[in-house]
Automatic annotation (TrEMBL):
It comes from the Bacteria. Residues 18-95 form the REase AHJR-like domain. It holds the Pfam family DUF4145. SUPFAM superfamilies: Restriction endonuclease-like. InterPro entries: AHJR-like, DUF4145, Restrct_endonuc-II-like. Coiled coil: none annotated. Residues 111-190 form the DUF4145 domain. This is Uncharacterized protein.
Length: 213
């Protein structure tokens, strides 16, 4: 009747998180169960997880909120609901935050450049927010799937999207930004360094634009 959810990285994470949560609550969890782990009425179903705790049974399906209502899910809910001791749980994939558009990010970098003259710390945080948004845009255009800035920088450098000097500059700025954002001691942002970061953001804007079809 219905197959398991297509396992994108976000779906895998959501399914793993659900399995961990259920196990912590005392459930025995099987990922991607086969027909032998389901009752005959659900033999043609491929849920993402099935869980058991005493006489209780769960069928877990991972879904995206962006997908339209699926008749298979309605039928699955009816069939699971008809089985004593069984219920269906839907787990939704967390929605990725939308990245600001290029023009907004470019304007943010420009504001940071000017702000650096009077408040380098605030300017650095603003410039980094522009840079990080642009890095995500560049990554999305190349099929990279990572939200960790350190891994993102390394991946873009390995693809030649940023050169070695830019990689070093961005990693240093990221480390200073983290110290500021988390109240840790670190080097004081320099006005010229922040302005160079803002200039680099403008270069990344151009690359992000040229990478579009």
């Amino acid at each position: 009747m219905t197959g398991a959810t297509q396992f994108t990285p976000a779906v895998r994470e959501a399914a793993a998180a659900a399995a961990g949560r259920l196990r912590s609550q005392g459930w025995e969890v099987v990922s991607d169960p086969g027909a032998g782990e389901l009752p005959p009425a659900l033999a043609d179903v491929r849920p993402d997880l099935v869980a058991r705790r005493g006489d209780e049974h769960l069928v877990v399906q991972v879904k995206s909120r962006r997908m339209p209502p699926n008749m298979d899910t309605v039928v699955l809910a009816e069939r699971v609901g008809a089985l004593p001791g069984w219920r269906l749980e839907l787990v939704y994939v967390p929605e990725a935050p939308l990245t600001a558009d290029r023009e907004e990010l470019s304007q943010r970098a420009l504001r940071a450049y000017n702000l650096a003259k009077t408040d380098p710390e605030a300017a650095l945080l603003l410039a980094w927010s522009a840079v990080e948004g642009l890095l995500h845009r560049l990554a999305e255009g190349r099929g990279l799937d990572t939200d960790a800035p350190g891994a993102l920088l390394s991946a873009l450098a390995s693809l030649g999207v940023i050169d070695e000097a830019e990689h070093r500059q961005l990693r240093e700025a990221w480390e200073v930004r983290n110290a500021l954002a988390h109240g840790r001691q670190g080097p004081t942002p320099d006005k010229r360094a922040v302005q160079r970061l803002s200039d680099l953001a403008q270069l990344l804007t151009e690359r992000s634009t040229s990478a579009q079809p």
